């Protein structure tokens, strides 16, 4: 999806420059990636841990924000 004007979430722009393509993931895609249920993803959205955009009746999550969420929670064992 590409938008002609920047979308705002929490005071920051989802599009840094005009013409930048923002890739979105569905709740089901994120749930499969994280190996959790859809409900867990909805809880992360509602708690503010994962930013999301509501489009119609469904949520879309910017792929960069999902990747950042996973990277912040990496844990080195041993």
Condensed summary:
The chain is an alpha+beta fold and about 80 residues long. It has 3 helices and 5 strands. It has helices at about 25-35, 40-45, 65-70; strands at about 10, 10-15, 25, 55, 60.
Describe what this molecule looks like in 3D.
By secondary structure, the chain is an alpha+beta fold. α1 (27-34) packs across α2. The model is unreliable at 1-6 (pLDDT under 50). It contains three helices and five strands; from the N terminus they run βββααββα. The protein is globular. The protein has helices at 27-34, 38-47, 63-72; strands at 8-9, 12-13, 24-26, 53-55, 58-62. Strands 3-5-4 form a three-stranded antiparallel β-sheet. Helices cover 36% and strands 19% of the residues. β4 (53-55) and β5 (58-62) form a beta hairpin.
Key words describing this protein structure:
single chain; 78 residues; alpha+beta; 3-stranded antiparallel beta sheet; two-stranded antiparallel ribbon; 3 helices; 36% helix; disordered N terminus
List the helices and strands and how they pair.
Blueprint: E1 8-9, E2 12-13, E3 24-26, H1 27-34, H2 38-47, E4 53-55, E5 58-62, H3 63-72
Antiparallel strand pairs: 1-2, 3-5, 4-5
Helix pairs in contact: 1-2
Quaternary structure classification:
single chain
Please state the average pLDDT score. 84
Strands ordered across the widest β-sheet: 3-5-4
Question: In percent, how much strand structure appears in the residues?
Answer: 15-25%
Helix run count:
3
The major beta sheet can be summarized as: 3 strands, antiparallel
Helix and strand sequence:
EEEHHEEH
């Amino acid at each position: 999806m590409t938008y002609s004007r920047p979308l705002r979430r929490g005071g920051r722009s989802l599009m840094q420059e005009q013409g930048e393509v923002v890739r979105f993931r569905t709740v089901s895609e994120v749930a499969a990636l994280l190996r959790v249920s859809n409900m867990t993803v909805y809880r992360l959205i509602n708690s503010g841990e994962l930013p999301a955009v509501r489009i119609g009746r469904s949520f879309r999550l910017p792929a960069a924000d999902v990747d950042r969420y996973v990277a912040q929670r990496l844990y080195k064992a041993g």
